């Protein structure tokens, strides 16, 4: 199983620039701003749907500037720049770059297994009598390797390959069963 971790970020575009006053409006030039067809009074602080609730703009004499840049926390709230979070086994930080703000991967030192659990590099874990370890193969890619294989008897206990144990096939218990490895799979056999 190879788990590649991608740098995925939820970006919010920060809109910058000056919106020219609409000539059809009778109000005095410089007393308001227009952004995305909506107008705002001089001094007004506002958010726009295009960049979400975590970017606040200010209208200043006809030009719009972002005055507060934060990241969405994914639960309807906002978190300031520099905030870190654990996300899909990665550590991410809220950062502004270019005209965007979002979470950037800071470092990743975990594998994510098929159950969504994170496992740090080099620390083995066992599930269903198989032992795995997370190995780093690249800067941002990790691999889960199987390092030990055991059989599992009818009661969930782990048994060595070749050892005799009780096993259930089609809900019928057999006393003399064993298992061996065939490629990447385990083959169970019972003797009657
Ligand atoms: C807009 O935000 C700035 C900075 O937080 C604040 O000083 C100012 O009072 C706010 N203006 C209004 C109209 O709320
Ligand atoms: C981890 O991966 C590297 C590169 O593929 C390899 O050289 C190393 O032997 C691996 N370690 C383990 C414990 O599998």
User: Which parts are unreliable, with pLDDT below 50 for 5 consecutive residues or more?
Assistant: 1-10, 21-25
Total domain units: 3
Q: Which structural category fits the helices and strands? A: mainly beta
Order of helices and strands: EEEEEEEEEEEEEEEEEEEEEE
What proportion of the residues form beta strands (DSSP E)? over 45%
Plain-language structure description:
- Keywords: Signal.
- Residues 1-18 form the signal peptide.
- The protein is mainly beta and 192 residues long.
- It has 3 domains: 12-71; 109-149, no CATH class; 151-191, no CATH class.
- 0% of the residues lie in helices and 59% in strands.
- It is built from no helices and 22 strands.
- It has strands at residues 2-4, 12-13, 17-18, 32-35, 38-41, 45-48, 52-60, 63-72, 78-80, 84-87, 90-97, 100-108, 110-112, 118-120, 125-127, 130-136, 141-149, 151-152, 158-159, 165-169, 172-182, 185-191.
- Strands 3, 6, 7, 8 and 9 form a 5-stranded antiparallel beta sheet that branches.
- Strand 20 and strand 21 form a beta hairpin.
- It is rod-shaped.
- The two termini are 36 Å apart.
- Mean pLDDT is 85; it is low at 1-10 and 21-25.
- Bound molecules: 2-acetamido-2-deoxy-beta-D-glucopyranose (2 copies).
- One 2-acetamido-2-deoxy-beta-D-glucopyranose binds next to loops.
């Amino acid at each position: 199983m190879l788990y590649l971790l991608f740098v995925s970020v939820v970006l919010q575009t920060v809109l910058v620039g000056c919106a020219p006053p609409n000539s059809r409006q009778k109000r005095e030039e410089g007393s308001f701003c227009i952004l995305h067809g909506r107008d705002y009074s001089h001094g007004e602080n506002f958010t726009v749907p295009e960049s979400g609730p975590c970017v606040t703009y200010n209208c200043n004499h006809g030009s719009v500037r972002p005055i507060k840049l934060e990241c969405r926390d994914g639960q309807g709230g906002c978190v300031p720049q520099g905030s870190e979070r654990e996300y899909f086994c990665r550590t991410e930080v809220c950062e502004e770059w270019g005209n965007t703000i979002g979470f950037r991967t800071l470092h990743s030192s975990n594998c994510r297994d098929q159950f969504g659990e994170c496992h740090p590099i080099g620390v083995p874990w066992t599930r269903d009598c198989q032992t795995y370890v997370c190995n780093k193969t690249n800067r941002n890619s990790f691999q889960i390797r199987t390092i030990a294989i055991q059989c599992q008897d009818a009661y969930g206990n782990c048994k060595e390959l070749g050892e005799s144990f009780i096993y259930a096939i089609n809900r019928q218990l057999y006393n003399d069963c064993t298992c061996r490895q065939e490629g990447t799979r385990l083959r169970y056999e019972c003797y009657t």
